[in-house]
Amino acid sequence: MQRFYGLLIIFVFTFLVAACSDKEVQEKVVAEEQNDVTATEEPAIEQVDDTNEEPKEVQDEDTLVGPPLPTTLEELEKLPSGYTEHISLLEEEGMQLTDELTKNLPDISNSPTNEELDRYYEAILSVYQQDYEGPGDLIEQMKFQTIGSPEIEDPRYQFKENLNVMVILDASGSMANFEGSVTRMDAAKQAINQFVKGLPEGTNVGLRIYGHLGSGKNTDKALSCSSSELVYPLSTYNAGNFDQALSKAGPAGWTPIGLAFNEAKKDLASFKGESNTNIIYLVSDGISTCEDDPIGAAKSLFDSDITPIMNIIGFNVDQQGQKQLQEIATATEGSYQNVKDAQGLQDQLNEASKIAEKWKQWKTSEEGWINYYKVDNSLDIFGYHTEEFGKWVNERQAIGFALTFLLQKREKMSSEAHDYLQQKNKEYHAWIEDEYGKLRDELKAMNEMNHAEAIKALEEKYLENTSNTP
Predict the structure, then answer these.
(1) Separation CA 428–CA 434 (nearest Å)
(2) Which residues lie below 8 Å from residue 169, measured CB to CB, with a gap of 6+?
(3) Which residues have CB under 8 Å from 80's CB, separation 6+?
(4) Residue 388: phi, psi to the nearest 5?
(5) Strand order of the sheet with strand 204-210?
(6) What are the distances in angstroms from CA 231 to CA 267, 280, 359?
(7) How far apart are CA 234 and CA 236, in angstroms?
(8) Among residues 30, 70, 88, 202, which is most buried (max CB within 10 A)?
(9) Ramachandran region, residue 10 (left: φ > 0; alpha: ψ -120 to 50; beta: rest)
(10) Of 236, 283, 235, 219, which is closest to residue 34 (Cα–Cα)?
(11) pTM to 2 decimal places
């Protein structure tokens, strides 16, 4: 028994450390800015987690190692992901990879107890843990898509005669980092260009950039932290002029998000909320690195008579950056989405364009605009459920194949242990399927409510419960 726990503890520790390392490589963990101050932000977070948590488990052999099985979808979402790619055990390469992933699992061919098998299952699950997503982003999106409903009491979210869309773009040094074959900046420019081109005729657009002067060096910090420019004043869209304005955005220095919000407040000062629907999109790949107050500045803009609707888009943002950007969204009752690549950014802006299309339909009194969002939400719910269902299937099959491989090919477990673990695997993933099924039904029911009831239900179901989650 002591030997079993010792081996299992060593395995979980070794795997989690390796998984963190793999994830850093796969997600191209890079410095937030090109300077000594921010160059170690994300690696420092990773190192603190590893050194503070894992050794404590190794020191106590009686401590249950590995994350216990979740009891809610919120807990499931927080589990660190393991190896999520498909493995073919019919090929030599797949068998070698499975051997590598499971090499530190203990041998359980000698009548382990059910308790030992339960701990074993937690360990092998951590190897193949999928990157599940909770419903938070989807619910935020559904909430945002209710903009324009006549049933919404808050005039901020009611359509007005004029629709103004202001994009605030991060031009700090880290936007030069590559996501796939293009830099973040190039991906952002392409997505923003396509977004504004598709806005309905009559929509006013504006573009403000920040952090575009100086460099990430300490000697340039003052210059960079004071740089924010309205390169395309709020007006009707002109392709040539907008392209020229967008070309001024080149990744350069630090990240003055607070300054950008304060200046945007001046940009929109003459566009009062009583006759304008003002929507702001901030696109950033990290936290503010200047001595400003981005949350306070965003709240001041939100509380002004401009009454903007705030949307924050994080571009492959690290944990610290996500926390700050989420706080900005929470303070302004806005939405926050974190996208990981160019396509994700494009998809998110495409979602935003649907609000503009609703506004167009409202202005022209086309029939059916009120129910426009319901159809769109139904598609989003279906897409979300399908993606999470695929993760559930992949995870169950990967574990099931690995267990059979360890029994038949490597003889590292008894038939009785194999059968017990396979049954546990089946029951656990039946629970996941059931939970996601209930969530899907709840979201569908919310979508059929009138707008006001749906907003209240969404907030009570998830948003208010998670707004204070660290």
Answers:
(1) 10
(2) 188, 192, 207, 208, 209, 210, 249, 283
(3) 16, 19, 20, 67, 126, 129
(4) -70, -35
(5) 228-236, 204-210, 162-170, 276-284, 309-315, 335-339
(6) 11, 15, 25
(7) 7
(8) 30
(9) alpha
(10) 219
(11) 0.60
